[in-house]
Amino acid sequence: TTTPRIGDILQKLAPFLKMYGEYVKNFDNAMELVKTWTERSPQFKFIIQDIQKEKVCGNLTLQHHMLEPVQRIPRYEMLLKDYLRKLPQDSLDWKDAEKSLEIISTAASHSNTAIRKMENLKKLLEIYEMLGEEEDIVNPSNELIKEGQILKLAARNTSAQERYLFL
Fold first, then answer.
1. pTM given for the model
2. Cα(113)–Cα(111) distance, rounded to whole angstroms?
3. Per the record, GO CC terms (predicted)?
4. Tens of pLDDT, residues 82-115
5. SS3 of residue 136 by DSSP
6. What are the DSSP E strand ranges found in the chain?
7. What per-residue string of b and e applies to 14-40 under the rule 16 or more CB within 10 Å gives b?
């Protein structure tokens, strides 16, 4: 109560939030694994259901709890923005809270970048499978820019052939 501050504390902890990007990158795969094993193994399904019934789980599913870390950084960012809006600019916590927001916004950006990269790789994998797995296009440096129907005009005559283009 003598020095009500949170900015200095968050500033020290905020750099660790960047590792949420790794969690976010693997989130879809983890969710898919839980779904697969719940369908495949009655024993696994029973254990998960049993754990979810515990009071400490608050009647929420495993998937709901797995989603919490994905939502955490955007929540921190939102709360800090709101805190700074309501905090007087001459407050002792202003500079630390502002610096914390900057670091947390960077961590949120890292998470969003990780999500976009994973979505891009997933799409490239789908295209790779559609193309019969002949040309290996699944590479983090490759990026799908656009895809869709086009008309290819023949050089010799004016006939047009429908094609599907991946750029």
1. 0.59
2. 5
3. cytoplasm
4. 999 999 988 889 999 999 898 888 888 877 777 7
5. coil
6. 147-153, 160-166
7. beebbebbebbbebeeeeeebeeebee
Upper half-sphere CA count for residue 26 (Cβ side, 13 Å)? 9
**CATH tag for 6-133 (out of 3.30.70.330, 2.40.50.1020, 1.20.900.10, 3.40.30.10):** 1.20.900.10
Q: What is the 3-state secondary structure (H, E, C) of 37-61?
A: HHHHCHHHHHHHHHHHCCHHHCCCC
Residue type at 109?
S
Question: Which candidate, 33, 25, 62, places its Cα nearest to that of 46?
Answer: 62
